[in-house]
Fold this protein.
Amino acid sequence: MEKETLNRQVILINRPAGIPQKEDFKIIESTMPMLAAGQIRVRNIYLSVEPAMRGWVSAVPNYSDPVALNSVMRAFAVGVVDESMHPKFKVGMRVAGLFGWQHYSVVDASDIEQVLDSDDMPISTALGVLGINGVTAHIGLLEVGQPKPGETVVVSTAAGAVGSCVGQIAKIKGCRTVGIAGGAAKVQMCMDMFGYDAAVDYKSEDFSNSLALACKDGIDIYFDNVAGRISDEVMKHLNIGARVVICGTASVASWNPHPVGPRTDRTLLVKRARMQGFLIFDHKDYYPTARRDLREWIRSGAIRYKEDILEGIEAAPDSIAGLYRGENIGKRLIKVLKD
Amino acid sequence: MEKETLNRQVILINRPAGIPQKEDFKIIESTMPMLAAGQIRVRNIYLSVEPAMRGWVSAVPNYSDPVALNSVMRAFAVGVVDESMHPKFKVGMRVAGLFGWQHYSVVDASDIEQVLDSDDMPISTALGVLGINGVTAHIGLLEVGQPKPGETVVVSTAAGAVGSCVGQIAKIKGCRTVGIAGGAAKVQMCMDMFGYDAAVDYKSEDFSNSLALACKDGIDIYFDNVAGRISDEVMKHLNIGARVVICGTASVASWNPHPVGPRTDRTLLVKRARMQGFLIFDHKDYYPTARRDLREWIRSGAIRYKEDILEGIEAAPDSIAGLYRGENIGKRLIKVLKD
């Protein structure tokens, strides 16, 4: 059987100040590396695109070392074991992990996060609703936010990969859900597909009033993916004992220089409220629990998900900027090689 | 036995926008009210002065209804039962509660928070280190902040009634303590009297550098009484997993219009940190536990306290503004009637 001998890789060539643009990446061809003992080669089928990638390429102090210049862009991917020098990983097994934006990845066993063998779910879900996004929604809402039945949960980027999952889990837990999304199409999707009790368009001039109307009984949990002026509006409606779960800060273009906004201290004091950041990579022990719940909810129809699939590795360089332009509807993936 | 027939009271006559000033109060003489069945008259010995009084007189939404105009200023006080129509409260008993800024208070049994009978502590401590301030320090640090041995705890208004107690409790729990106070005298007091490992003067031009030097291993808990620019500096040094306990916002002159400052969202996210407001009145069940600990620590010498005692009810109207001018050294009290 003839094997492919060339690899295609997306490398980071500039370190962007804000949102990584197309020009910050380059696609190169490289020779396929040899496997050392214990290594595995994965033929990638789907590459993932995350809002968090902005942080991964930034030199501003963050939760992980920045992707090195002229190296392959860090990314989750799902693929098939193509060649193996490890006894546990057989050719043909489907696996997921941080394999990078490339056609073929040579990895160690410790790089493989999930084996997708006897799974009845499409493998793409390992990058979204059963991957980092679903698990982030699960732990962020349930462990950090601690919702109680009857509470009002507000979610920003409500139609996105994490947000849509948060809204649906909150609903499963008996909460009233209010989604914040950009544009009429996403607002409609919040209502029709993700079952929010109300959805508000932050691009509308009427956003402030609409949000107030949608949250007449105040807000008990705010699951925040955006920060900035959207969050400033939400903070005005916190109830006593509210929890603000900080998952992302997507709406703030740059943190250097440090942006200013309304001080939150007194709101947190008067409302005896809690604002807490979390990072999913701190909670790896929790992934199996979250995935078990998510699978069950997907099977029962309690959780629906949407994917936004780009074709070919050529789509990768502009794909993060596209997320920040709000182009995607659902979890953004890049289909690179055939299943 | 001849009884006093006139009362002296401090009433609120203007609702201040920011810090309540001398002119916002008036001292009046009034006739002593009759007791109804079940009521108790207290002859007040010490009246308390709190930074929180700024909030109590404000019409801006807050955690309690504002003190009504032309009514007696809300305040904790400690005194002696002078007359009683309640079987449990005998003349001569020492009691503490929200008795207001006045010589004599007619109260219901439910207004009496503490009976100071068989106590070996001076009664003034019922308003400070064994009153709202000590209890606030105890629950704020231990329940909200959850310190672990070896952690660095930073305290603002470190020489104040709450702050000095927080610093000493943190020390008892095996933490390294860094105090922030205004001026050389208070910084010295932090070191000499309250046992901080380091103390920094926020009025010094070198504040930012001094704080960084004092917190070389970062900050695990920030017990904040001030908000504003002091807190902005502290936030730069948070460690992963840090807790910010919001107890007060004394340095911010007014919250209307809402002041702006550096956004904290991304710091909380990257540091997986938690910022939480609390209000001591939510935790009344916890007071006995806190007081038991505090008494023990005072007796053993592990907690020291300082009082700043003004003489006569005439001192009341200017006493809150004086706190905000930083005049007091320790817990501010007003001695009104003889013990």
About this structure: Chain B has a mean pLDDT of 94.
